[in-house]
Amino acid sequence: MGDITKQNVDAIVNAANTTLLGGGGVDGAIHTAAGPELLKECEKLGGCSTGKAKITKGFNLPAKWVIHTVGPVWSGGQYNEKFVLTSCYQNCLKLAEEYQIKTLAFPSISTGAYRFPITEASEIALREIKKHLDQKSSQIEKVLIVCFDEKTYLHYLAQLGHV
Ligand code: AR6
To answer: Which residue has the CA at smallest separation from atom 10 of ligand 1?
Structure first.
């Protein structure tokens, strides 16, 4: 449980929107902590499709890199939301490997403003991270999931089988 902007890791993941030009929630917190240079770099990226990921520098953050991904807006579950959230985790992990990132922190993508149900979201997050780290070719050493509130934290713990 904590604030992702304070994590001493190589990269943090941002739960952004398709413009990549900032917003509320974790996106707003990351832009505030990184400073205005982050927005300048994001402006050059031309946005990001839902389910995809793009990388920038971390500027004033302790993290060297920010991986921006765009989670699905939950619309009842009939619009490929689970598939798209799975793609977010996969594409972030793939980008992390490409940049030789060893330590990486995720927020709980889509479970705030985008209203994805936390039970399903935490299941997808943990499954995809574990599946990736189980690959022999992975060079990632540590993945954190940083939960901002106790309810989210308890759901991830339950999903891990720890409560
Ligand atoms: N550290 C870690 N987690 C955080 C932090 C933080 N500093 N701040 C919030 N969270 P959300 P989404 C948690 O809404 O659902 C933005 O406006 C939060 O409590 O940030 O993917 C974007 O621009 C929740 O558990 O992201 C998009 O428009 C989780 O992060 C939209 O919101 C995700 O909540 C994306 O919505």
So the answer is: 26
